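Weekly structure sync - notes
Attendees: PM, LS, DV (DV joined late)
Agenda: review two folding runs queued last week.

Item 1: First target. Sequence and structure tokens pasted below for the record.
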Amino acid sequence: MAVRATVGRFPENQEALESSGIPWGVTVTPFAGKDENGSPPAYGSDGNLLPRCENCWAYYNTFCDQEQWAWTCALCGTLNGLSSQAIARYSLPHSCAENLSSFIDLELPLDESEEMQARLVYVAAVDLSSSEEFLELIKSALLAALEALGPGSLFGLATFSHKVGLFDVQGPIPVVKNVLIPPDSDGGLPIELDDVMPLSSFLAPVDTCKDRIASALETLKPTNSWERTTAAGQGVDGVLLGGRGFGVAMEALLNYLGSEYGNTFALGRIFAFLSGPPDFGAGELDTRRYGEQYASKGEDADLALLPEQTPFYKDLATVAVQAGVCVDIFAVTNEYTDLASLKFLSIESGGSLFLYTNTDNSTLPQDMYRMLSRPYAFNCVLRLRTSSEFKVGNSYGHFFPDPQYENVQHIICCDSFATYAYDFDFANDSGFSRHTTELPMLQIAFQYTVVVPPDELSKSTSSSANRNKHSLQRRLRIHTLQFTTAHNINEVYDSVDPEVVLSILVHKVILISLEQGVREGRVLLNDWLVLLTARYNDACKLLQFERGNSATAHVDVAFSQCPQLQPLPRLVFALLRNPLLRLHEEGVHPDYRIYLQCLFSALEPSSLHRAIYPILTSFATPDKQAFPRHSLSRAALITSGSPIFFLDAFTTLIVFYSSTADPALPFPPPQDCLLRTTINKLKQERCITPTLMFIRGGQDDSTIFENYLIEEQDVEGSGFTSVMGFVSFLEEINHGVLEYLK
């Protein structure tokens, strides 16, 4: 569990917070194997015996004062009695994980029903209102997925178009049973899926049926357009409607699986493969809103295309959560599919949203294999507690908020990359008092379930019956952190983590974009940088005055006295240039914008940094690095004189040989060189498969690479301008600060 704060030293009170201009919050990556310092947790058992505070319900931790019979809560200061069991337990302090480390991971006992259902269920829902190319890609992706699924997994294959199809692959030949979706269907199917095929026939054990599942995949064929339009009937104004009954299929599958949640399986995952918008039956989406009418109506397309047009998929996410099913949506299409409406089904159920604009160079098979072969936790509950002087303001991320308890989030499925963010407010005017020794405390508790292979089972449970099967393990991970407070604004600035500040800003601009439009998001970001620059200059002016220097009218927009703040103007400039905040008329597809919102709001800070402001490195030869970091400008390329450049933009990796590179340098770089080792390591550590490109300057088209050199591009539009982009942006900020100070 990695926890990173925007500031290492917290502001003393509300006045100090406001005068700094820095957002105050943290990012949490709960299932990361190590903490923010690279240390693993102390493992232990009997998590159910861990003492809890009677007042704030925080867990006992290494920061608590312990006496023989009692302990004082480090978060709220309450004195709590210890049970006789706990007194005996703590008489040997080094025998308990909670006395060894402030980052612990404890096993919890399972009840009998949980021990019974250690199986994971995977269902592929494949869109047949599609093309041969689409289905070939899906077949490849599912074959890759089958290789990644663990022993004991169950797999079901379903299809949807104007009908829902269920496959039984457990016999000698695959059998498919179809149910037609009524054309006027405002809700479900005319018959329950249970009555079409028992769930036990639909869900096949992967261990014994892998070849039969592969055979069933080979039988998938697109439904022809005549069949679809005949079933769908006449559309609006005589135009024939399509037949992609995605909403009906999802609702039916969730009800089908939900009936057995906790009996047959511990976690269900549906992989939904879409080749276009749902256009038939319940959950049908009107894609005409992505037409020319916004131009003629004078509506703001950036605002009009971001909210959902129906609550259907948001409501369906609630059904998914109750059914213990997480839904991953894979959209392979370049037509408008209205991901703004569909996204809730995936992100609120703990799933992911993937968008591939074509089938030719799609990384879908690699992404599926990668997603399923890494460890993940499920049925998770995340809770953040603070000491009494401050409290959680907003929480951000792909979770389902608890309907009853504040600051409790439910996550159906969570991998080691999934990251959540919180910002803080002061609970009262006094803040952190200078006259007390109490320091700001933060405790994150994460309760989760994992599937454990037989060889990893703790010896205490390894009976001969358990030895050959996977088991469920419920665990409680707790990370308690103590922060210091800053005595002045310079201490706040010197402790800033710019990557975490960027994370909080991205969450805030996504929220404001959804509520008020992309333009408002851009204004918020610009205004924030003006405000921060003004506050920083104000602080420096005080500093100069204290040292006997007279204040000057010069505005330091580059934060020259504070290295921790120096990356921020570039990060804000890059974020304004990113498709996330580029305007509709600049050609940003609304589905791509939604995809970026979903991707960026789940990334940990270092990955997000790369996605917003890529890292550019230079090499003298494929085996020798020249410079670890360059600004994203053509000038940097020319002045460095290096022949090889490597750009890491998170989703894309580019190796660029300059046109002046020695022809004797091997192209592409050989497999055993330093550059290739760097690339392979980065690819291995990514949550998605980055696209790798090799470009030779002067011979290949280098537009893709040059588009990443954003510092000479205008912040308001695309392409190169007569004025230098980043330089003129700083001048605008300078002008904005002077206006603000007036």
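Item 2: Second target, run right after the first with the same settings.
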Amino acid sequence: EGVPPSSEQRDTQALLSRTQAMELRQRDYHVDRPLLNQEQLEELGSRSPAPVTLQWRTWFRCSRARAQALLLQYLPVLAWLPQYSVRDWLLGDLLSGLSVAIMQLPQGLAYALLAGLPPVYGLYSSFYPVFVYFLFGTSRHISVGTFAVMSVMVGSVMESLAPDDAFLLARDDTRVQLASTLSVLVGLFQVGLGMVHFGFVVTYLSEPLVRAYTTAASVHVFISQLKYVFGLHLSSRSGPLSLIYTVLEVCWKLPQTVVGTVITAIVAGVVLVLVKLLNEKLRRHLPMPVPGELLTLIGATGISYGVGLQQAFGVDIVGKIPAGLVPPKAPHPQLFAKLLGNAFAIAVVGFAIAISLGKIFALRHGYRVYSNQELVALGLSNLLGGIFQCFPVSCSMSRSLVQESTGGNTQVAGAVSSFFILIIIIKLGELFQDLPKAVLAAVVIVNLKGMVMQFTDVFSLWKANRMDLLIWVVTFVATILLNLDLGLAVAVVFSLMLVVVRPHWLPPMPDTDIYRDLAEYSGAREVPGVKVFRSSATVYFANAELYSDSLKQRCGVDVDYLLSQKKKLLRKQELKLKRLQKENKLPKQAAASKGTSISINVNTTVVDIESNNDVEGSKAKVRLEGGGSFRDQEDAKASDMSSLKALGLPQPDFHTLILDLSSFSFVDTVCLKSLKNIFRDFREIEVEVYMAACHAPVIKQLEDGHFFDASVTKQHLFASVHDAVLFALQQQRSSPVNPVLVS
């Protein structure tokens, strides 16, 4: 029942904007209902226990449909390959596969050296696992293969179990044996965890933890390459403080530096940096990046062979690279006990990197990756790769970005790149025998740029979330001092302990109406067009993904499907527009909009089009030098053309989603990103999102994390769920209902 405003309130409201006045008016009410205790509330709402679904019963059901579903689940290539569009995708996948293969060659050689193995085994690891992932993986854009962090973890195991000082002749053979057995054991861990649906284990590696760990690993990588840059022979070290001792030894032996090696590394590094800068400058004008790494390898090999760098200046070279593939070999089970702890750490880190990158690309391109199947796919890649003398692999961020930017659409790009690597192994690999190791070290160091830039996280986390900053610092310091395996264990334990000791806010019962779960209260009634979602626990890095998935499942709308279909239809409209432009069939009325610059944003993909015509796109933003009314018309028309109704897609049966945050006692950076993604995804399907019942400490953390911006303001935040419900109904110009129970 509303309370009429006084004259003083009317004077105040006259000075407020329309939005502020509406917000003030919708709060001028009081709840008029009987006082209820818990027993009366349960009786009024006809409470009964929520139905329990025994999931295990479905596991033992046998049918043809279930068998087919399981086959498609564990062998995804059978699901997407029959639907492969040769006309639309093949050219992009071929170009992308070639671009990635050009990067795979130098990186494979360099990362094998980083792992303490002969360079040719990096080529093997760039072929077998990539092809296996093509069959079993669900991500269309990640580039599986050698990766710096994985290689340095393998190298640490090699230094520990097969140090240089312990061998005269058979060191390489022993290390290959260890690395391949380690790969098999890593694969067994990953496949086993995937089969029992333990893909969620990676959720206990928060984003600050993973970023700090990879940053610390990049420091390990950099230090490990100094012996190749300076041409030094260092003692093998492993365990706590080994990195510190290695730095001290490098400083001690600097007078023994081989000048020719240093000059070779510096020249190669400068060339690589210049080519990367050139690629960034001209990326919009080049169909594919200039292959700086490959050109550097070819040039360095030619100079080394022609000048005789090894004989004349003492520059260490790669040496013999055998042509052809090696036969498969069984692993050595007697080594499992020694490798068990390291294998588990490598398995978890490799999967964490792959699934994190895979989900970024999936979100950007409107499809879904399945964590358990990704775990199985990566595990089979390592398992079968280990049998063929490969070392453990994951996915590379730099290659994945190239695979996406050069037009890669599906896993076919990975199969194409593995085919090119096969040709190199069989015919061209032996041509790089005179390649200086200093050049490979330069390739590794230059590719660390992305991970080294993560040092800026310290400044952003200082402003956004001090607890996450503490996790970052502890992870980094522990990984630097205790080595990669122990550092990871300390980081995980510390981050989980920090969840327990974070300050928790215990709120009083809000003086608003009561909202309960429909599954438990059969007498509850939904507000038409409004969904209220509440979590029973604080959302943080370990359950943020589960929160988002549960929300999408419970709202009754396949959000991911709608987003992907909308994106596909918008792309078709864009291609149709381009064809019309080429065929000069645009209507003459388009001349009025000559020079208009239009930016089409679908999720996180931005396509800039210079156009003389209206553009059918998502969130079209038209930048004109003048004529505000024309701009408004263009914006309205573009919005209409990109609506679900105009695209022929089903519309959700609700217009507002309210997130009840009363159970939140803190928010971390992962929770902030999840909430941002929820706002973005539901707005894309034309559902407005509000937050309610958020406590003061949490609001402060949202502000510190820069959660509020132009798209999500504090006007989307309400003191109670009932406030948000009334405001949503007001916005839709509906007559307000005053329900007792809402799910």
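Discussion on item 2: The longest strand covers residues 596-602.
Action: LS to circulate a short write-up before next sync.
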